Amino acid sequence: MNSVYLGHLSRVFPEKSGTQLRSMLKGYWRIHQRALLGLFYSDRLNRENVSGMVSWENRDVLDEAVQEGKGVLLLVPHFGDERTLHILLAITGYTMHVISSRYADAPDILKRARLDVSRRWHHVAFPDEPLRWAYDAIDRGEIIQISPTGWGGPKGHWVKSFGVPVLASSTPVRLAKSTGCRLLIVYNRTLRGMKSHITFQRFDPESLDISGTGQLFARFESIAKQYPEQYNWMNLVIRHRETNTIARLGNIPKNESAVEMAAVHADWDPANIQKFQTVSSISASPGSAPAE
C-alpha cells in the first residue's frame, strides 16, 4: 500500500522529492504505531499521573466555551492520537462524551483497549444510535468529541479534502445549527515518552451548512500540512477509495461496510480522482437514511 500513500502525498506535496516523501511516510507510520500503542498505554493513565503526560495549547479556548454553558462539540481529525484525546480530557476533569466505532470486526483485545478504558472515564456512543443523547448532553453544557473525517454516511456533505472529493459528516454543523453549541477544532499531537500536546482552536464557520463543513476540512488540511507526519493519511486513502466506489455504485449506501465490500482494486488508485460535480449529485440509496 505504500505506493498508494506516496501517490497521494506526491499530489499534496508536489514540491517534495521522492526521498522526502518516503521519509514523511515513514514518520507517519511511526506515529500510527505509537497511537496503537497508546490504546494499551491509556489503561495506565489516572488522575495522579496524567498532568505529567499532557501539555496544552490554548486550553483557555475550551474553558471559555464550557463556561458559556451552551455545550461544546470538539471536532477532532484523524491526527496524532485522537483515540486517547477524550480519555485525557475526561481524566483531567471535563465531562466528556465520544462518538466511536463499535470495532465489531476487531480482535477482542483491541476492542477492549479501544472501548473499555474510555467507558471507565466517560460515556461512549455509537453512530448507529439515535442522537437524542447528544442533544441532552449539549443541553447540560457538556462536551462531545466527534471525528468529522470519518464515514459521512447518506446525510454527509461532499467536500474537497487534499484536492479530492470526500463524503464528510454533516453532524457537526447540523448539531450546532439546531442547538447553538460551540464548535472547537482540537488535535492531539503525540510526543516522545508517550506524551501528548493538545491544541484547541475556535471554529466559527460563516454558515452551518455544507459550506461550513468545507471550511472545516480546509482547516484540517492546513493542520495536516503543518504536521504531515502526525496526520493520519490512511484516512485520506480510505475516504478517496470510498468516493470512487460510491461513484461506481451511483448511490450512497447506509453502512460504510457495504462500500468497503463493493470496492475494487481500481478504487484505490490515487490517480483515479472523481470530478466534484459528478459525485456531489449522488444521493443516498432508497431507505438508507440513518436513525436520528
Which labels suit this protein?
11 helices; alpha/beta; 9 strands; 292 residues; two-stranded antiparallel sheet; disordered C terminus; 7-stranded mixed β-sheet; single chain
Describe the structure.
By secondary structure, the protein is an alpha/beta fold. 45% of the residues lie in helices and 16% in strands. The protein is built from 11 helices and 9 strands. It has helices at residues 2-12, 18-41, 59-68, 82-92, 108-121, 132-139, 171-179, 210-226, 233-249, 256-262, 276-279; strands at 54-57, 72-75, 96-99, 123-125, 143-146, 157-161, 164-168, 182-191, 195-202. The strands form 2 sheets. A 7-stranded mixed β-sheet has the order 1-9-8-2-5-3-4, with helices on both faces. A two-stranded antiparallel ribbon has the order 6-7. The chain is globular and about 50 Å long. The model is unreliable at 287-292 (pLDDT under 50).
Helices and strands in order:
Layout: H1 2-12, H2 18-41, E1 54-57, H3 59-68, E2 72-75, H4 82-92, E3 96-99, H5 108-121, E4 123-125, H6 132-139, E5 143-146, E6 157-161, E7 164-168, H7 171-179, E8 182-191, E9 195-202, H8 210-226, H9 233-249, H10 256-262, H11 276-279
Parallel strand pairs: 1-9, 2-5, 2-8, 3-4, 3-5
Antiparallel strand pairs: 6-7, 8-9
Helix pairs in contact: 1-2, 1-9, 4-5, 9-10
